[in-house]
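Why do we bother with holo predictions? Because pocket geometry can differ from the apo form. Keep that in mind while you read this record for adenosine-5'-triphosphate.
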Amino acid sequence: MSPALRRQAPLLATAGILVILFATAAFLYEGFFSGRVVVNLFSDNAVLGIVAVGMTLVIFTGGIDLSVGAVVGFVSIFTAIMIQRGYPPALVAVAALAIGGGLGAGMGALIHAFRLPAFLITLAGMFLARGGAFWISTESVGIDHPVANALSGFELGLGPVGLPTTALTVIGVLALGYVAAHHTRFGRNLLAIGGNENSAVLMGLPVGSAKVWAYTINGALAALAGLVATIYTGSGNPSTGLGLELDAIAVVVIGGTLLAGGRGHMLGTLLGLLVFGTIQTALLFDGRLSSWWIRIVVGLLLLLFILLQRGLLRGAARGK
Amino acid sequence: MSKSKSLSPVWWPLIGLAVLVAVNLALNPAFLNVTVLDGRLYGLPIDILNQGARGLVLALGMTLVIATGGVDLSVGSVMAAAGALAAVLLAEGHGLAVALTAGLGVGLLAGAANGLLVARFGIQPIVATLILMVVGRGAAQLMTNGEVVVIKNDAFAFVGNGTVFGFPFAPLLAIALFVAAQLFLRRTASGLFIEAVGDNETAARFAGLGAARVKGLVYVICGLCAGLAGLMAAANIRAADSYRMGENMELDAIFAVVVGGTALTGGRFLLLGSFIGALLLQTLTTTMYNLGVPPAVAPVPKAVLILVVCLLQSEHARRWAVSLVKGGKK
Amino acid sequence: MTAPSDGPLLSLRGVGKRFGPVTALSNVDLTVRAGEIHALLGENGAGKSTLIKVLTGVHERSEGEMFFAGQAIHPRSPKDAERAGISTVYQEVNLLPGLSVAENLLLGRQPGRAGFVNWGGVRRHAREALARLGLDIDVDAELGTLSVALQQMVAIARALDLKARLLILDEPTASLDEKEVAELFRIMRRLRSEGMAMIFVTHFLDQVYAVTDRITVLRNGTLVGEYLTQDLPRLALVSKMIGREVNDMAGRAADLPPPDDSAPAVVEARGLERRGAIQPIDLMLRRGEVTGLAGLLGSGRTETARLLFGIDRPDGGEIRVRGEAAKIQSARDAVRLGLAFCSEDRKGEGILPNLSIRENLILALQAKQGVWKTVQRSEQEALCRHYIEALRIKTPDAETPIKNLSGGNQQKVLLARWLATRPELIILDEPTRGIDIGARAEIEALIGRLRADGLAVLLISSEIEEIARNSTRVVVLRERRRTGSVEGDAITPPALMRAMAGASEGGAS
Amino acid sequence: KPLTVGFAQTGAESAWRTANTNSMKSEAEKRGINLKFADGQGKQENQIRAVRTFVTQGVDAIVLAPIVETGWEPVLREAKRAKIPVVIMDRKVQTSDESLYACFIGSDFYKEGAMAAEWIAKNAGSRSKIVELQGTPGSAAANERRKAFADELAKNPALKIIDSQSGDFRRSGGKEVMEAFLKKHGKDIEIVYAHNDDMALGAIQAIEEAGLKPGKDILIVSIDAIKEGVQAVVDGKINAVVECNPLFGPKIYDTIAKIKAGEPVERSSYNVDIVIDSTNAAALIGQRQY
Ligand SMILES: Nc1ncnc2c1ncn2[C@@H]1O[C@H](COP(=O)(O)OP(=O)(O)OP(=O)(O)O)[C@@H](O)[C@H]1O
Ligand SMILES: Nc1ncnc2c1ncn2[C@@H]1O[C@H](COP(=O)(O)OP(=O)(O)OP(=O)(O)O)[C@@H](O)[C@H]1O
Ligand SMILES: [Mg+2]
Ligand SMILES: [Mg+2]
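The structure, written out:
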């Protein structure tokens, strides 16, 4: 195997297993192999996908952000309340993005300037955002606004299936994320920082600004995910996104990105998202399991997936 | 004076704890009052210790896992599974010994599974333990059929509620574990081995350490701690609530460890720091009940506390603050 | 390209640097002119790397002034220094093992516009930069899969590619073999003729005399003086560096015994092989002998050592220890069998950066004894005292984190780590890498003592003279295959060189 | 061909919820209905995903137990477009268009809270100081039970809430919060109002450990009426529980059958909930199924 190909081996292995997974589900469940299911994979996982893209960038630097789920919740209820009070949706959206980005920038700045552990700082961010969300309102609030309705009703027709706003957004964000991570200096700098921050400094890379930007973008993407969640449901809910951060981290890591930083791929995140979604959809199609068996089976499927991924990679490494 | 010998990192969470207690005292002078009721010590500090005991036990195991550069997300679910199994066995009429052994056995098994995945298959700890986090909760619910199983065994309840000479048993147990662990880790080479693996695993392996074995073992210990914490939690409320027991406890445990001065990247660990960290967290929770902070915004003071302790701990932040003060005087 | 007509390109005046209570530098002057190669010399821990890091803004200086191209400079980060026109290869390879070679070469200044990366351009540019150094490496390979030497070459290629006015090379040749060194020197000479200034740190005196024009010597963080290379004889230079007289090393160690085929083998390998790493190889490592393993870069020396030590699993062949078949499946097994392996990759496979010297030092011994048989604290401290003195490790105390030591002193701690286990076979992979001339003599003397004490030593070194001076037998590897062996008095650098290059089969095998 | 029904449950967060799920499942089995069960694990996102998947699969009817009130319009519209009737169970949804779902069958959290308050107003006697153990902040049950209780108290100026904290619907939460309350207010506490039985049962332990008699020294009122809660009423440790009946199965499937047959159904109907106190607990404990 050529080195270039070997570097892509994790991705190829993940993709291969995803195909097997999907094919198995399609074989088992009638109606699974359809464009709708594929579109739903994107639209139902849009919030997770958008958050995962930002999380990938942060994890590239060897950092982590636990606040994203709470930011989604905050933005969701913030947007709903502000629109209800009559502010124009565009303005509210911009404000939400600014809040998300601002929180990210603040956390990033603290983490970098004072060498604080990202885990704790973003945990504090999570508590702040969730507290803020409940402070705005402890109840979910419906939105009835022509713009919001138009957005949530919109579908880009593609033959037999239509791509709704949510799916379009996540696909767009994934594409942008891919370009940013793999075709810009910024993205490469992030990976370098995660590889070894000291080395990155010695190599003359702009470590501080890159790190802060990673958290800023991640915060803004979490806010965007919050907007998407609001459009998806046509309502704001302060408890949206509970536990989302863990799902996002799992998606990123399943995609082969190293949590310690320095190694990873945005396409892996896409694959991780699809694996996650496929497992859940397959279980919904099945519909026979009890609450607890669903958990157990999800866990075991994840385990199987990871062991297969490992096995394939080891095989590839041995037979080079 | 050697300025480089800076304050031990244990001091910062301790200062945080002192501040928190001071705030409480200012608002409620009776905060630290302890009385004797029915031959038991009774008062808020006792509650803090009693309710914090589980967190302490979890933090102990988590410290070792984090010291090797790993993390264990499954502890909350393992707690639930251990508590559930013990409760179900008791409900079926088995004795105390069976229930305790089974609960700890669940922890052991879970730890071994995590250790196997991390140390043997080289799977990233966060994913490896995430699997058990999901499966463990499911298994707990499966055991109890999704219901709350009530425990009527008084001997078992002692684990969570008993007193020894008036002093609550659970925190005594936790403290004893900490002391034993500290002695074992620092008197034998085990502490060094764990730190070596966390600091540079490859180098540790090259020096002849069974790095995989060390890593596997810390997960087993962490699993055992989680199992014990599960038993304590079930005993404390005399019931196993498979859905809610141990929920979010993994985050709390990690929080306690990191606030206590052990870096998530592994290497040097501070058992005493984790102890204080866990205590700090429980004090904060109780403080919030005590001050009547509305539940919806209760996370906010938590955030503030984290920030304060973090900033105190950071040498960079302290230096910056000093320069600000000096700059201000000019 | 010319520097401003007069005045030096770089001048440092009264530079000092303290780390807490440790004074690493005090009142150091350094003057470097355009178009010269300036050697910066001194013992391990003299402050060379620290001076360089102050100059490039990694460390903030505690006092003093720095002028570059006539202007006072205050670099706050390596980025500032790069912008000003100073390009640096730091002592430890500071690249990113997870990224490709091409990326490592061009990180931060990839071709492309508006912040986007043109990957085709990156590869092309990287290939050219490597070709200029005469290297043929797949630019898509992950850097971490390369040997330390190749990584070092990549780091040099990166620095050269910056087109700076001052190039700083901190021990770039420590892990290179003759061929690479020659290539590097050729390039350095060319750059000099183009008017570039260079600071060159090395512990190889031959290299100092081969390329440098001027020498600045540091000792204990203070300036000893600046000299013209041609005016300073070797012995004088050595005594200036270490502050005492030392005999220059030349020729084979006087007391080297002839190879003794009757000495019992500590370790014997038969047909040991690993696909993609080494062809089946036989080795006999006898008591009281130093077996040299000679070969060019990538010839498979390190891989052989890793196989012997159980780091990698062999695909075939067997290892016998003290005559009995041994199953060595991990370093742990090897250590327990009385083997020791001092790796060439100090940073990755050697030190535990945040732990103390004491903990680093006793680690292997403790691992050998197991958890339960704890090395008592007093014993630990005695070991530290012993080795700190015996190997002249420069440190305030044994509780200092090892990452605060200079590179050479870290190396000494690692040697001590292995000696403390009282091994029967010690494998030394580049043991003198980055070690100053005084300490080198000590280490070579130590190798002699170990041999005399009846240990088996497997010595891997890219320095042919070092192998020639110390080995009773030499096994030569070429292209991952044992191609011959040289014994006893036949071991001379020219003979080894011929065998390594494949010009003729040196001796019987 | 058997009827296929998709059921999007909120999760398995409590014994109450499990009883509810079991009722749906066993009844489906009895009637030969093919039930597709989806566990939302406490997240609206998951429930929406489940409903959409049901639509994709083309089930005959969907039962939704919404975890929050708003945010269902888009997905309900999808179901309507696919002509799949949706029965909303347990709590209401807010929509601008009533026709998006077929009908609502549920329990009335607000009414439960109000009933608890009424019982206290009637039976508290000279007691007046109440501590409240709230459910999980943001959850519908907690929101409604808190609001209703407060609204009702407003009519009774004698009664007042002296402290209120979230015990997260957990037994351990109830105990922990109650411990803190007891230290803080001491003998001032006269009445405990818990948003569910689990917290009340936890609080009872705390009260006993403080050397007081639950049900006597302190009045305890809670909601749900799980078996253990009713038993506590029988034992005199809880003074009253407001029932919140989870056994929806039969009524739901009857309704679906009617819809499928084109018969008219009631737009919204509630399970009749009762207050269980010392007067009727002993009689009712025998027939508790959950
Ligand atoms: N970060 C640090 N903290 C404390 N002391 C340090 C630090 N960095 C270097 N030192 C000390 O400064 C002194 C000079 O170290 P330096 O690395 O400059 O030596 P060197 O001349 O480059 O040696 P070598 O030839 O071994 O590389 C050493 O005694 C070292 O212990
Ligand atoms: N020219 C080369 N191109 C690509 N990879 C190489 C080259 N030379 C060596 N390598 C890689 O470097 C690694 C190290 O090789 P090895 O350790 O066997 O060399 P060595 O003889 O010990 O040399 P040294 O210790 O001087 O680096 C090998 O895994 C090999 O794949
Ligand atoms: Mg140096
Ligand atoms: Mg080598």
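Residues C 48-49, 91, 170, 406-407 surround magnesium ion (ligand 3) (CB under 6 Å).
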